[in-house]
Amino acid sequence: MKPEANLTGLFVPLVTPFTDDLHLAPDALACLANEALSAGARGLVALGTTAEAATLTTEEKRAVVRICSAACRAHGAPLIVGVGTNDTAAALMTLRELAQSGDVTAALVPAPPYTRPGEAGTLAHFTALAERGGLPLVVYDIPYRTGQPLSTSTLNALGHLPEVVGVKYATGAIDAAAMELLGSSEPGFAVLGGDDAVISPLLAAGAHGGILASANVRTADFAELISLWQRDAAEPARRLGAALARLSAALFAEPNPTVIKGVLHAQGRIPSPAVRLPLLAASADSVRRAADLATARTHQTHQEAAA
Q: Is the pTM of this model over 0.85?
């Protein structure tokens, strides 16, 4: 029997705010976490790609998890934590440490990146994590980052593992494979969209929710989009989805999360747009375009969605 993870709705993979000299800004992170949950997010994701987890120290990662855990406890919300590595043994150690905290609902785990172990090796990797990690798992299917595509049959095999409770589906396409997955996944296995610009049609096709970096900027609107599709309010959902797709395209005009951080800084929500190498800060033009879309027609869109 699968654990009761209840992974539906919007999950916001938070950025990690830094100061200008690239130190962690914990107060800003706490504010972002509480703002997202107050604005309608179902839960949070800590230490995802958007969080620049690859450049954080071990202690910084622990601090980020503590801060996000506190916000989720206060709001009664689930917390998902990213665990990205191509070393199965190291992933097991991280999972066990997270499980001991008692505050983590699930771990977001990609197919082993760079190694490209094949689908059989990927299934063996997740089987080991499921059996010995002590935490429910959300598979992160993002082949353009990992180099390891996963077929629908492999995803369904993963979905049959008792501790695998969902997939962040970010293949870059809504195609026959996506439709097959949505039509064949078993109860207790949530399909969460991970490609921000096309989340609306994926929700229309039956996805349970989304893990959406763009929702750092307009959390309430993305939460409303998911709610509209869940209520079968197709016409306002299409209008809102089109507006948010334009925003997402602007926010991903440069490597994630550089533009998102630029917009959050322009809004006064984080102390600096700084990112750590190898990322470079987004250009002023990209930030300006995205910031305009982040504020333009927000209130009008809400009014249209409610009509």
A: yes
Tens digits of per-residue pLDDT, 62-117? 999 999 999 999 999 999 999 989 999 999 999 999 999 889 999 999 999 999 99
Given 2, 61, 114, 168, which residue is catalytic? Answer: 168
Cα dist. 255→78, 87, 204, 211, 289 in Å? 27, 25, 27, 17, 15
Asked if 140 is an active-site residue, the reply is yes
CA–CA distance, 91 with 86 (Å, rounded to integer): 8
Instruction: Tell me whether residue 261 is one of the annotated catalytic residues.
Output: no
Q: Are strands 106-110 and 209-211 parallel, antiparallel or unpaired?
A: unpaired
**Which stretch of DSSP H or E encloses residue 108?**
strand 106-110
259 to 78, 82, 179, 263, 269: CA distances (angstroms): 27, 21, 31, 6, 14
